[in-house]
Design a protein that fits this description.
CATH architecture of the largest domain in chain A: 3-Layer(aba) Sandwich
Distance between the termini of chain B: 51 Å
CATH superfamily of chain B: MetI-like
Order of helices and strands of chain B: HEEHHHHHHHHHHHHH
CATH class of chain B: Mainly Alpha
Order of helices and strands of chain A: EEEHEEEHHHEHEHEEHHEEEEEEEEHEE
Strand content of chain B: under 5%
Number of helices of chain A: 9
Number of helices of chain B: 14
Structural class of chain A: alpha+beta
Distance between the termini of chain A: 43 Å
Largest sheet of chain A: 6 strands, mixed
Helix content of chain A: 10-25%
Number of strands of chain A: 20
CATH topology of the largest domain in chain A: Rossmann fold
Oligomer: heterodimer
Radius of gyration of chain A: 25 Å
Shape of chain B: globular
Strand order of the largest sheet of chain A: 6-7-8-3-9-10
CATH class of the largest domain in chain A: Alpha Beta
Largest sheet of chain B: 2 strands, antiparallel
Chain lengths: ~375, ~290
């Protein structure tokens, strides 16, 4: 592996009265595609800027392969950054932008040319080398920024919301390209984003952050399927949250008396005492919606009756808002393949049945 | 239809430029080809004498006016360079200060004081019995007053002082618009602090630097009051020469021909500079076609 391990220990950052980072510790493995995910103001960019060397933490330490990098200025760290607004040098051509780090090192021109061409090919920009940044589209600018950040062969590439200024289709394309580049060069990528679908689709691991704290670190699968708390559950994907009290449990099978819907069955590997207040979550796509009362379901399925209060058709799926038991609004997503096979579409104000497996529900946290 | 509306919009500007720029220029140009009259005016006779007088030699074989031109050029270049070098850090500092209204106000304040008074203020500071000499004597550093005035250094000092605001203001406006994130990018890519300023900031504020140079160089090149008060009376700057031609001898054609001559020099200089820029831009293009096929 060419990448470095990045270790952040108890990083703390105050901006005046504002506590941007609160005692953050995490280890990013060599060659990993690691995402820092969270809403704006959660401290993810501050953490990235501390690793890059643009900010000094108020407390804590940052190690690259066991070497403390905090005393080093940005130009002495073997780390390069792709900036949100590209930060291309407007007075230089695409070629000279990418060549900038090599020019600083006074590399002879034939070698510069050879290497710039290699990186132009990597980001598919051959033919644009003599253009100025203002002659490029947003996606092309970002490719130049990526090539420029990689040409120094850093051991860690920092990406600060690199795709946020692009439209959805281009964003997806560039994300796939980034993933491919990561596979090709094998260095550590640290990717800051507020877009959970970006983070889920390309990351090896994700750190979910909020209000200056890391709430959970895990693979996309772990973060989605087993969110550490209700913030993570709500922030990653959509979820239905139901609070309730544990009324019965047999091994890992729990019954929760929810505040709105009555008893819900759920399985959990963790232990919860009887009478404990807990927060239960169920993803909308895991709920099945039918017009007829389902028959022959196993005992551990939760079944509720309700009325559709809103339908949103979005091509590949439909989203329903269902007033379950006329008290609690539940979100339900139905993929269209199976949904159309089932015959007549479910419409607004239809009476419906919702059911889900107790295994698919999840006790997020105690409250 | 569209173009007619456009013409209407540009009419006030056309009038303004004609009235205050083109017509005066034409008058100067016309006068430079007329004959000097003994009474201090001109005779309407075509003559090339005024231009020939620029290259007039003294008995000892020296070109009097060209020497003055040369001396003026050096003084103007030196004063402009000093002004820009001082103005850059000032403008940078003002642009990076969050509350810069007060600082800008301080830069502009001297304009409220009469230009001549500002020059004579320096006499009060640097003169034989000025503040500086009195102070140094009081401190016992010197016993006899030093002659600070009436030399090139005094002229340069006051030229820089009077022109500093004209350089700071255009530099401030361009530096304020500069994206300081680019400096972070340069640092990230391996540039030192000074390296990032030199390689990224300077080229991107070039427009402001050129404006500042023009705003200072041109008035300094034509200045007469500052060398008149502060300078050595045995050497002339061009502005003094032209003024004296007008005021002392009433030699309008020579004064005009000198002005036209400077104008031609400036235009030729700018054209050369432009051609040089274009050539540099062309030379920077790289050809990588062979590697890609």
């Amino acid at each position: 592996m060419k990448g470095s391990e990045v270790r952040v220990e108890n990083a703390d950052k105050m901006f005046g009265e504002f506590h941007a980072l609160k005692n953050v510790s995490l280890t990013i493995r060599k060659g990993e595609f690691f995402s820092l995910l969270g809403p704006s103001g959660c401290g993810k960019t501050t953490l990235l800027r501390i690793i890059a060397g643009f900010e000094d933490p108020t407390g804590g330490a940052v190690f690259l392969d066991d070497a403390n990098v905090l005393p080093l200025p940005p130009n002495r760290r073997h780390v390069n950054t792709v900036f949100q607004n590209y930060a291309l040098f407007p007075h230089l051509s695409v070629f000279e932008n990418i060549a900038f780090p090599l020019r600083l090192k006074k590399v002879p021109f034939p070698q510069i040319k050879e290497k710039v061409v290699q990186y132009l090919q990597l980001v598919h920009l051959v033919g644009h080398e003599n253009k100025k940044p203002n002659q490029l589209s947003g996606g092309q600018k970002q490719r130049v920024a990526i090539a420029r950040a990689l040409i120094n062969e850093p051991s860690v590439l920092l990406l600060d919301e690199p795709l946020s200024a692009l439209d959805a289709k281009l964003r997806h394309q560039l994300l796939m390209d980034l993933d491919l580049i990561h596979d090709q060069i094998g260095i550590t990528f640290i990717y800051v984003t507020h877009d959970q679908s970006e983070a889920l689709s390309v990351s090896d691991r994700i750190a979910v952050m909020n209000e200056g704290k890391v709430l959970q670190i895990g693979t996309p699968f772990e973060i989605y399927e087993a969110p550490a708390d209700s913030f993570v559950a709500r922030f990653i994907g959509e979820t239905n949250i139901l609070d309730g009290t544990v009324t019965a449990h047999d091994e890992n099978f729990y019954t929760i008396e929810t505040d709105g819907l009555g008893p819900i069955m759920v399985t959990s590997d963790r232990h919860f005492d009887l009478g404990r207040r807990v927060r239960h979550a169920i993803r909308p796509e895991k709920i099945d919606i039918t017009k007829e009362k389902p028959v022959g379901l196993p005992d551990d399925f939760n079944i509720f009756h309700g009325k559709v209060s809103e339908t949103i058709y979005s091509g590949f799926q439909s989203q329903f808002y269902v007033e379950a038991d006329e008290k609690v609004q539940m979100k339900v997503y139905q993929q269209h393949e199976s949904y159309l096979e089932r015959g007549p579409a479910i419409r607004w104000t239809d009476e419906v049945y919702l059911n889900w497996d107790a295994d698919d529900g999840y006790i997020v946290e105690m409250i | 239809m569209k173009s007619r509306v456009g013409t209407a919009y540009s009419l006030p500007l056309t009038l303004w430029i004609s009235l205050f720029f083109l017509i005066p220029m034409a008058i100067v140009f016309l006068y430079s080809f007329l004959t000097r009259d003994t009474g201090g005016g001109v005779r309407w006779e075509f003559s090339f004498d005024a231009y020939l007088s620029i290259f007039k030699q003294t008995d000892s074989g020296r070109f009097l006016y060209l020497d003055i031109l040369w001396y003026t050029l050096w003084m103007a270049v030196a004063a402009t360079v000093l002004t820009i070098v001082l103005a850059l850090p000032c403008a940078y500092f003002i642009a990076r200060t969050s509350n810069n209204t007060l600082l800008l106000f301080l830069v502009i304040i001297p304009f409220w004081v009469n230009f001549m008074i500002r020059i004579y203020a320096w006499v009060a500071i640097l003169g034989q019995s000025g503040i500086l000499n009195e102070g140094l004597i009081a401190l016992g550093v010197i016993h006899e007053p030093i002659q600070f005035l009436f030399n090139d250094w005094a002229v340069l000092l006051v030229l820089v002082y009077t022109n500093l605001p004209f350089a700071i203001l255009p530099l401030f406006t361009t530096i304020e618009k500069f994206d300081f994130g680019l400096l972070e990018a340069a640092r990230d890519l391996g540039a030192s602090h000074m390296g990032s300023l030199r390689r990224v900031m300077l080229p991107n504020i070039r427009g402001g630097i050129i404006t500042a140079i023009l705003f200072t160089f041109i008035p300094i090149f034509g200045t007469f009051a500052v060398p008149d008060v502060m300078g050595n009376s045995s050497v002339f700057m061009l502005g003094q020469l032209i003024t004296s031609k007008l005021k002392m001898t009433g030699d309008y054609p020579t004064a005009s021909s000198l002005s036209v001559f400077i104008l031609i020099l400036t235009v030729v200089g700018l054209m050369l500079y432009n051609a040089f820029q274009r050539k540099q831009e062309r030379d920077k293009r790289v050809v990588i076609a062979e590697e890609t096929t």
